[in-house]
Write a structure and sequence with these properties.
By secondary structure, the chain is mainly alpha-helical. It is built from 18 helices and no strands.
Length: 444
């Protein structure tokens, strides 16, 4: 008995020291990589302020080109994650980043709708697998109880990319005419270079898993491997099964619908928001500065929300409430009239919702997946979910051309996010009942 009090602090200290090392070794670098990935994905929204006129793109054509990224992204995400499992995260993530960097720079070669569609399609193919690959990679390093906070910290790179990237992109547009290139061409070239550099650095920075982490002490490495293996054996909601059964599992499909709403709204606002703000008659730099405001607020909110989810060990309502906030905000956009201030407030609320749900959502959905199902399941959720980005981005362009209203173009995403909020509550209730049935003693 006297030795008992000394045991718990030792274990706690080991856990704390191990996860601190892992966090500082991996998360800042992965955040920087995802920051650049998202800049290269959505900087087309700022390019549109000049490019659409230069190459003759209508709102519908721009919307389709912005959205076609997600078609190739959809078809290649699951294969990409399965390949990563075989060749290792280090090499595969490096390959993804170098490839997308090269293609992102080639966006400067757009001369019309067809070349715009083609390069956006190739960019989606190149980037497919990066995000689900990193989410899978984080499950190799972080126990489940820490994931909402860690994923939220990692994913703060998304709003940060727009918060920091918006004024940078606007400034690069000011290089218009330098060395015979348009401002939007300079923007694509300059913002593509870091992806290639980081891709090369990935080979030196990342390791495939804890067993390869020589920077951990032997006891730290042993604790982490033992803890993660124990968690993987305990998962039952989406157990080991054939690839098709994993992809068609009801929990995976519900999670994909939930993610489609949040991601669709996130991507749609990232791509279209500069034009929505510019429609109030602002300059490019004013647009860039105001565009950064919602993302700056969301960057702080998503980390605090993820920490609260981890502290309370609650995932379901921490996912459903932000989804509901997105839906309400997008509907409210139709009632603010011509007020710039009210529009910014509505956009802040919507963007906060799109990012706050991400950490708890991925902590919940990865917790449903068995180890052997994780690669395919995560990629499937992200792939189907990102089709929301295709639908939302394209429909907004079509509706804007026909009605001259951005607010009406946001309504389909409002309905999708509302369905997602309801879906996650229903699926989680069913999962709890199933777990209770398994653990309750059978009658005699």
């Amino acid at each position: 008995m006297p030795s008992a009090p000394a045991v718990m602090p030792a274990v706690s200290a080991l856990e704390t020291a191990t996860l601190k090392k892992v966090t500082w070794r991996l998360i800042p670098f992965l955040m920087l990589c995802y920051f650049i990935a998202y800049v290269d994905r959505v900087n087309v929204g700022f390019a549109a302020l000049q490019m659409n006129k230069d190459v003759g793109l209508s709102s519908s054509q721009f919307g389709f080109g912005g959205a076609v990224f997600f078609i190739s992204y959809f078809f290649l995400e699951v294969p990409s994650n399965l390949i990563m499992q075989k060749v290792g995260a280090r090499v595969w993530i490096a390959r993804i980043m170098i490839t997308w960097g090269i293609i992102a720079g080639c966006m400067a070669l757009v001369v019309g709708p067809k070349s715009f569609y083609g390069l956006r399609f190739l960019l989606g193919a190149a980037e497919a697998g990066f995000f689900p690959g990193v989410i899978l990679y984080l499950t190799y390093w972080f126990p489940a109880k820490h994931r909402a906070r860690i994923i939220a910290i990692f994913m703060v790179a998304i709003p940060a990319s727009s918060f920091i990237g918006s004024p940078i992109s606007a400034a690069l547009l000011g290089l218009h005419g330098t060395s015979g290139l348009r401002g939007w061409q300079w923007m694509f070239i300059v913002e593509a270079v870091p992806a290639v550099i980081l891709g090369v650095l990935t080979l030196a920075v990342l390791r495939n898993g804890p067993n390869d982490a020589k920077w951990l002490l032997p006891e730290e490495r042993a604790w982490l491997v033992r803890t993660l293996e124990g968690e993987m054996k305990a998962k039952t909601t989406v157990p080991h099964s054939s690839l098709w059964r994993v992809l068609s599992n009801p929990y995976v499909l519900v999670a994909a619908i939930v993610y489609a709403g949040g991601t669709g709204a996130s991507v749609c606002l990232s791509i279209w928001q500069p034009q929505i703000i510019k429609s109030f008659g602002l300059t490019n730099m004013q647009t860039g500065l105001l565009n950064s405001v919602p993302f700056g607020v969301a960057s702080v909110a998503m980390v605090l929300w993820g920490r609260h989810s981890d502290r309370t060990r609650e995932r379901v309502w921490h996912t459903a409430i932000p989804s509901a906030l997105i839906a309400v905000s997008l509907v409210a956009a139709g009632f603010v009239g011509g007020s710039l201030a009210a529009t910014i407030v509505i956009l802040c609320a919507a963007v906060i919702g799109t990012y706050c749900f991400k950490g708890p959502f991925w902590a919940l959905s990865t917790g449903w997946l068995a180890a052997s199902s994780a690669a395919a399941g995560i990629a499937q959720i992200n792939a189907i979910g990102n089709l929301g980005g295709f639908v939302g981005t394209y429909l907004l362009g079509v509706i804007k051309d026909r009605t001259h209203s951005y607010a009406l173009g946001l309504l389909p995403l409002a309905f999708l996010t509302a369905a997602g909020a309801i879906g996650i509550l229903v699926a989680s209730a069913v999962a709890r009942r199933g777990a209770a049935a398994v653990t309750s003693p059978s009658p005699h």
